[in-house]
Amino acid sequence: MQVPAPVEYERALSVEEAIALLVKHGSESRLIAGGHSLLPMMKLRLARPEVVIDINPLAGALSYVRREGDELAIGAMTRHADLLASALVSEHAPIIAEAERVIADPVVRNRGTVGGSLCQADPAEDLSAVFAALGATVRIRGPRGERSVDIDSFHTGPYTTVVEPDEILTEVRVRIHPGASSAYEKVERRVGDWAIAAAGAMLQVSGAAITSARIGLAAVGAEAFRAPRAEALLSGKEGSPELFAAAGAEAGRECNPHSDQRGPEDYKRHLVSVLTERALSRAYARASGGAAR
Amino acid sequence: MRIEMNVNGRPMAAEAEGRTLLVHFLRDTLGLTGTHWGCDTTNCGVCVVWLDGKPVKSCTVLAAMADGHEVRTVEGLEGESGLDPVQEGFMRMHGLQCGFCTPGMMMTARWLLDQNPDPSETEIREAISGQICRCTGYENIVRAVRWAAEHPQGADESEGVNA
Amino acid sequence: MTTVEEGKAHVGFGRMLRKEDARFLRGKGNYVDDIRLPGMLHGAILRSPHAHARIRSIDTSAAEAHPKVKAVVTGATLETLNLAWIPSLSHDVVAVLATDKVRFQGQEVAFVVAEDRYSARDALELIDVDYEVLPPVVDAKRALDPDAPVIRDDIEGKKDNYIFDWEAGDKAVCDDVFAKADVVVSQEMLYPRVHPAPMETCGAVAWMDPIDQKLTIWSTTQAPHAHRTLYALVAGLPEHKLRVISPDIGGGFGNKVGIYPGYVLAIVGSILTKAPVKWMEDRSENLMSTSFARDYHMRGEIAATREGKILGVRVDVLADHGAFNNTAQPTKYPAGFFHVFTGSYDLAAAHCHVRGVYTNKAPGGVAYACSFRVTEAVYLVERMVDRLAQELGVDPAELRMKNLLRPDQFPHVTPTGWEYDSGEYPRALQLAMDIAGYDELRREQAEKRARGELMGIGISFFTETVGAGPKRHMDILGLGMADGCEVRVHPTGKAVVRLSVQTQGQGHETTFAQIVSEVTGIPAEDVEVVHGDTDNTPFGLGTYGSRSTPVSGAAAAVASRRIVDKARIIAAAMLECAPEDLEWDRGSFHVKGDPGTSKTIQEVALAAHGPMDLPDGVEGHLDATCVYDPPNLTYPFGAYICVVDVDPGTGKVAVRRFIAVDDCGPRINPMIVEGQVHGGLADGVGMALMEAIAFDEDGNNLGASFMDYLIPTSLECPSWETGETVTPSPHHPLGLKGVGESATVGSPPAVVNAVIDALAPFGVKHADMPLTPAQVWRAMHGNPMRTDLAIQ
Questions:
Q1: What is the pTM of this model?
Q2: Which of C687, C674, C654, C660 is nearest to C739 (CA)?
Q3: I need a labelling partner for C136 at 20 to 30 A (CA). Which of C148, C257, C350, C677 fits?
Q4: How do strand C721-724 and strand C653-663 relate by DSSP bridges?
Q5: Cα–Cα dist C151/C93, whole Å
Q6: In chain A, whose CA is at the least distance from the CA of B54?
Q7: ∠C35-A6-A26 over CA atoms, to 5°?
Q8: Residue whose C-alpha is closest to residue C358's, from C107, C140, C602
Q9: Closest to B57 (Cβ–Cβ): which among A2, A52, A107?
Q10: Nearest-angstrom CA–CA distance, C436 and C712
Q11: Cβ of C67 under 8 Å from any chain A Cβ?
Q12: B160: confidence class by pLDDT, cuts 50, 70, 90
């Protein structure tokens, strides 16, 4: 089996200690939470930090899903399995539960964390699209204090985010909108594979009218994982199969997928159209109370 | 560095590098070769063990991360009264052929049954979907787990082995 | 709690739990990487990042300076030992470590031996290789272009990438049949490169004992005796000082037939360091460098009357053999048994032409449960029959039923020269259709089509050709494909059977005990199976091509019969009667007409070792041996039906049902047979829907990890529905035919036929495997992709 290059191991018992260790070891150190993004990269020697800082002891403090006012707060150390099992998530953000069901596999979900997935910032990461659709905010702490970043400005490119080398992502917050619901659609070559394309939708509905629409796309090179032109088509309109098809088609046009072994570009655009349309339809039905869960 | 962990109910300790993967620590350092490895990319699941009571892929955990924690491997499945019903089920339903994925499959199966004593076929298939078997086509693994669900105390004395 | 040991004695064939499970269930198997010897060192291989490049220089000094490194080996080192190149299994040569050029991505370039496995891998990064990158040959269809780079310039005078041409069948007769036929349908198709990918990768521990100069190799081999002889021939090591041990093997599927450079390097490492050396490849190495399967570009044609009587099949094949011709098939047959492509039908004529070429890809070609290219052959003919059905507008089940060989036509000699031993084909197809509820499925499909839903039903009928083989026709590197067996009954009536074949999960420790038990009446629990160790077993070519039961199983049966024959003489002496006055009741003899006067096989065994005077010419003890040279191959067959649903929006295929009726003759252990069928069906779903190794224009392997080489999980596999018919082989002593690869051979065309059937409303005639969502969607839009190249 492939094995990591030599690395020094440190363990942080608190967020403050994690930050202090990051400061101490500098840019060649990496936090390790679930390790399911970092360790495979280290085994392939595509990542070779000099120090890994184990933050699993922070799970006690940073693993939670709770409602705070009109927001859902999700601790960064929340494991995928716990997010999937959360009744609060299923009730207020079905898109998260639907995505979690198709992220990696059950055993990986026992270990991988929300924060780790977001910080790895793989262009095919489902949670990036999910939180883009939900308009989430992430909380980041570092030696210069704590800051909140809108998900739309969180990613700076493939595999890069605004989280500085001496900072730690601590929480994701999602607004609970009245009359809103959401859905996620993904097609993969096989269970557990990364998405060929995936689409999430969050719709706020008043009566039959869509008052707010957000679409998140994974694996198709969408700017900030969003589909703004498709979203614009939806706002203020009454939901209908034709409207969702039109928005799907627009999303398929505006994303920027590349051909790879998962599929050619034309197929990925088509897939985005179909999956966006399906996610919109389901989110709309849920928000309208038709098929709410 | 010195790494201590409780493995199958027994405290164990040994020196290892910070980069040592848990699967190698178990196999090469502690000599518990029942846990296997089969890929580099966390896809195959033949290395599944329990870490603090949950199945994890031990190729994607540093041994150091398990320092001070509890690990359970296939060697810890058999109890004083004999085989775990999951082991018995795999034997009776022919849930294994080459035996390479079997330890990981059984560890996940045991965990599933602890959470859900009466899983449906779909729930079983979902639970093992991160673990590849190249021999059985999964059918008899599903039957094996169902057998264990139906025999939580193991086999009755009256049941013959070779029907 | 009940355990195996407490179960009642089990005599002969039938469902019996496996003896080997006791250790596997407890994590006490003994696989190669579980072996630890005192002072053992670890090897790792540096591989080429390029598909085609000249090696200008290799600098190993930094690696050698690593404090934990014990040796660094390059092609130059091996040249001094005359081991840089070894013979392939197909009358070519294979580089152990590259000396002049690298010829595929992942080719072995250097070998490091270090104190631990982590350090060995660290040291690989310290080796500096200066490559001059050369243009690669990636597309097999371009390999023979006049301007194609010459891959094998190591062969003197070689100016192209041509390997061989091979034909079977009478071309003139076949062309005549085609010229006169009402209907001729042709179809190009690719059986893409797939990989066996057993869960355990390949590896070895080599230990050259410096005192008695005996070399012991524990390795992942399906053929320990063949390996030992080849090591003797290659390395010039004396065979009696070579011991190959194949311990527990974590799946083989043909991947563990060949001798890989890593095994040789472990041996060299042990000789150089005077310590045991372990080498275990990682998954990427396994997928990049060890034997693949298939990679056949085929153009099939089928001729028929307007009424649907199939007259002939002809095929032209371009075979991509990679950089070295290293397929492991009988010498006479460079395309294996591909000429069984005539399938299960009554044909007037058939012809095939196969051309083999070199490309800058890993060598190999028959691995993966393929029975020597039978998988490709069955895929070809079963796709062609479906294409014909489509063209004629008839139901594919009806077309098959009309053309299947009838029971009275056996033994049947095919137009390409095979003699099928026995078969009741229509019965098997009818049973599969009954289990499936075929007519009801077609009704459901019609309703769904009317609603715009895509449901497909696919049929495959296959005839396998296994049990290679008669040694006058079949050898590998001059070693005839006959296998030995020794049976010894101990004084107390327990027995040991020693085999040349080696299990990789097939359950030989159980089934061979059952074979001995079936013949001798000794309970299977009382028969110990010894295998996988050349010092303790008779010679034979090993386990692949589903040959264990048809060849070694026959050897075990014949040796067991010899035991019974000898026991009869001794029993007669004990009972003071003539041998012919005894009746055999499996396990004991009694005097005819006097059932009370009898001797059990156990009593005879004790007497055979005792003081009693034995009849003239009868030596003591109760032992027998047999070397079994099969008179013919065996021909298992089956009828498979697959039901799929295709998402019209995404192209995603779900296999809803799979019905498999197999006929492998009598079943030694139905539980094990069914398990093997299940595994092969999953293989077929994998190949049809997701498994393939493609290469980009630079020759980079695009399937070099389990992230990229997808193997089906529990969720892509349906709950298999199986059925059986029993048509014994007339020439096997127990009528057995073997089953190991039947399902792998038979299932891919059933899945593909089902998907193409589902896409009928779009006018789709064919799309190559793997039928990924993208490929299905492209097919629906009339633009399916080549699946051997990078997707553009």
A1: 0.97
A2: C674
A3: C257
A4: parallel
A5: 13
A6: A110
A7: 160
A8: C140
A9: A107
A10: 23
A11: no
A12: low
